[in-house]
Design goal:
The structure is a homodimer of 279-residue chains. Chain A is mainly beta and 279 residues long. Chain A is built from 5 helices and 14 strands. Chain A is globular and about 55 Å long. The model of chain A has no long low-confidence stretch (mean pLDDT 95). At the A-B interface, β3, β5, β6, β7 and β10 of A face β3, β5, β6, β7 and β10 of B. β7 of chain A pairs antiparallel with β12 of chain B, so a sheet runs across the interface.
């Protein structure tokens, strides 16, 4: 059986160094964006280096990934270092590097990850899933011919899809809110890595708000995992509802706040990111 | 003239190593929390190590700080490393360490910081300052006798102050929303470091929502700086309006989303954090 393209993209091989633990991988043409890999795949790769580390304690609870430079097509090395292990929590530093033109390794992505042993506590959600039509009743957006990674997802916009008419400052959209059903195509059991990638599936909020398609790219993303591995298993291969909006656009950067729910309405992730835009 | 207590708390001395650039500092009794320093002061210290680094490019645009372990009272060393410098952006890794009982340095806090040369672009805010009474018309909350760092701030709760009656699951508050005017006491010109600390002034959202005072502590915080240094200069020594609320409480962790505005209504910061709670 051929592995899912997402698992192929995330495949890491031990590079022989244990301190710090180093893996080698390669960017995936299947998850290619415009001038580099889909940022969600890079974030998932950073998490994967932690998940397959022999010293891992517990499950991911938070991840911050910083896109320090454009990742080039091809091979990279990635190190994951458990810098502090407590009784029930663990903190990680991750670094992804590629050789420059002179062959010297340069950092292209950094990440910090926190893992923890989850336990039952008092719990409550203040972010109920918004009332949107079911995935079956929303047509799938045809994304073939656009960036390659978009073909890896089945996306159904309940609200805030790609603008049909690009304008500019004279014809602002009323908000930057998108609500979209998303799942892997072909389907794949949800896990922490795929949930990480799905936290980055939203097209730039500025494209919706202005609406103008200016050059834009995520510079840092933070993901808080509220769901346990058991809750991800329950979500199965169902659709995920993703919601995203921005709070401010200024000085060449805007933020994006996002939430992801399982099809049955469990809040799985809250996320923020900061996005560069050109003008 | 004696330096402001906040500047004393943030004072770092070169430790003699340039690669990575290492500073020494010490925790401040004036910013002491219950069992360690106020997390906002620690976050500000991590930023300070970047701000006074000779290789700094531009101004802070994002910061993530991870509280990997309790910081003990006393001295620490902090390293700030510019791991990637681009034309207009720069990425940093920061690490704060203290010796353990055997005298071996152990990491207690990590941070990643992004700085950038800000430039004028199209701009828009979708997070207007909420309509609250002016600072002068809201009484200052008396916090003397509580944790020491609280005495370093003038706080005036427009909404969501400390519960007057602690309950439990049978008497939930309707939400976890706090809106509070805050400024340094004595007053101090706002800058990126003080804005970082102010991003962490909110008491744990679970105390408000349940309302029950369970043990709780921030494990990671991300701050996006939307304001330029010039806009912080404009904010002067005026009050800052802080707003915070949670989206989910589960498995011993809850999130907090926050916004900070200048007294005149400019959105300065959006922030998120993940907070551990005991039960």
């Amino acid at each position: 059986m051929t592995k899912h393209l997402f698992d192929q993209a995330l495949a890491l091989q031990p590079a022989g160094s244990d301190h710090p633990y180093t893996w080698t991988g390669a960017t995936s043409p299947a998850y290619w964006n415009m001038v580099g890999p889909f940022g969600g795949a890079t974030a998932a790769t950073a998490l994967q280096a932690v998940l397959q580390h022999p010293a891992l304690l517990g499950e991911p609870v938070s991840l911050t990934v910083n896109y320090a430079a454009a990742t080039a097509e091809g091979a990279f090395t990635i190190t994951a270092t458990p810098i502090r292990t407590n009784r029930s929590t663990q903190h990680w530093v991750v670094s992804l590097s590629q050789p420059d033109a002179e062959g010297t390794d340069q950092v292209v992505t950094t990440a910090t990850v926190m893992t923890a042993l989850r336990r039952e506590t008092w719990h409550l959600s203040d972010m109920p899933m918004p009332d949107v039509p079911s995935p079956a009743s929303v047509p799938r957006t045809q994304l073939k011919g656009a960036m390659e990674w978009l073909s890896r997802y089945d996306m159904r916009f309940a609200r805030g899809g790609f603008p049909v008419k690009w304008g500019g400052a004279d014809e602002l959209s009323p908000d930057s809110l998108t609500q979209v059903w998303v799942r892997d195509d072909p389907v794949r059991q949800l896990d922490f890595a795929s949930l990480t990638a799905m936290s980055d599936v939203f097209y730039p909020r500025i494209w919706l708000r202005r609406p103008l398609r200016v050059p834009a790219g995520t510079v840092t993303m933070t993901v808080y995992f509220h769901a346990s591995g058991a809750q991800l298993a329950e979500a199965g291969t169902g659709y995920i509802l993703g919601q995203a909006s921005a709070q401010a656009f200024r000085h060449g950067f805007f933020d994006q706040s996002a939430q992801l729910w399982s099809e049955s309405g469990t809040l799985l992730v809250t996320s923020t990111q900061l996005v560069y835009y050109k003008e």
